[in-house]
Amino acid sequence: MLIIDADPVEFKQDPVEDPILSRASSSLQQPPPTFEESVADHVLHFPQDDDLNLAQEDGEEPPAFAPYDAHFFTSRSGDIISHDSHLNDDGEALYRFLLSQASTPPAVILRCQGSHNETHTRMVHSHHNGHTKMKTEQYTERITDFDFCIDVGQCIFGEPTHWSYADSTPAYRGRMYQELGISVEKRKARKSERKAAKAWDTERARRGFPPWIGSDYAWREDQPCVMQANGVLKSSWTLRQWADDYCSSRKYSKEFNYHKIAYGWNFEAIRVAAISVVNSTHYRGDLSVQFETSQNIVSVRSHNRLSRALSNRWIKFLLFLTLIYPFIWLFKRFHSRGVSKQSVPDVHAESPFRDVFDTVDATTQGSSLADPPGRRTKVVGTREGEWFRQWEGTIRRAVQNRLQDKQPLTMPDDQPVHQALVLDGY
């Protein structure tokens, strides 16, 4: 805004005429522009690369937000281990780190192994008092007939669900022994409680139940367990609260374990079916069919030399040989600042092979899953029977051909190749 004094001050003008002043004086004699002319004026429109910042005149723009990139390494089994100091002090950083690692599902494989013992006879030469003697002896050798595995984890469907053990379930909650409850209500778990919890955890994993299903859960063989909501167990604390509790601990050696669990398939039924397929080939050797899970643990540990040394299996082995590790264990077990072991309590990121969600159908009077009228439960993902039908022939032929391969099989061998699919009339 220009203010014109009523009594102008006299001043001595420069003999050189200033074009800017002349334009300003001429503009004062013209009427102000209209609103439409002001909007269309080029002075009000700044180019994108202009350095003028009307929002911040005295400072630079704040830097863009970037998530914290924590330092970690991968063990031989594929587990994630981190000694980052920021993850041990900031609960928000630890929480975000766990969420980022949970996006990667665990690796699940079905391993089939067959072997037998063979007894052989060989000649052995021996020297005694300058004389050479020869004798025969028998020895037993283990022969591997077949050894292969199938990648089952590629069928994992959906986003992970973050969950932690219920308050009534024995778990590590800041001590070297399992406890029940939270905060000041914690107590040491009895041996019978730990034994019962371990037995049910094994049974639950065999049947493919979600971890939040308790031992009092009444399942039905004709209905997937994930469709029923009764008997659900969970902790009173959220994942973020457990992360803050871990970071607030002042223990010298502390550990935060985050487990990934796959559920939704009846793994025991698949294992029994695979054994029956191998037996149909008239194989009579020693057979082993098991599910193996790897890359399923995210462990955050203290940022000090002792914790880093114990994370190295060779250093830990040397500590055992030199009898130093027993003294370290006593310090961690009995000292007030010894160890804080938290499995949060065993916070899990469940990766389902099948996921369930409700769909509303106004025309539906009921469903086979005993849902309320007008609401149905839809199951998405691959069922274990469909998966086994695809791989049944591959398992049989792998046994007959004595296949030995360390790399997991990802595709059945009876699938058409890509070159054949492009043929006209195939």
Bin the helical content.
25-40%
User: Can you count the helices?
Assistant: 12
Rounded to the nearest angstrom, the distance between the terminal CA atoms is 82 Å
Uncertain runs are 1-17, 42-57, 220-231, 358-372
Say what oligomer this is: single chain
Beta-strand percentage range: 25-35%
Envelope shape: globular
Order of helices and strands: HHEEHHEEEEEEHHEHEEHHHEEEHH
- Number of DSSP strand runs: 14
Instruction: Identify the strand order in the major beta sheet.
Output: 1-2-11-9-12-5
Helix and strand composition category? alpha+beta
Largest sheet, described in full?
6 strands, mixed
Kindly provide the radius of gyration, computed on alpha-carbon positions and rounded to a whole number of angstroms: 35 Å
Mean pLDDT, all residues: 76
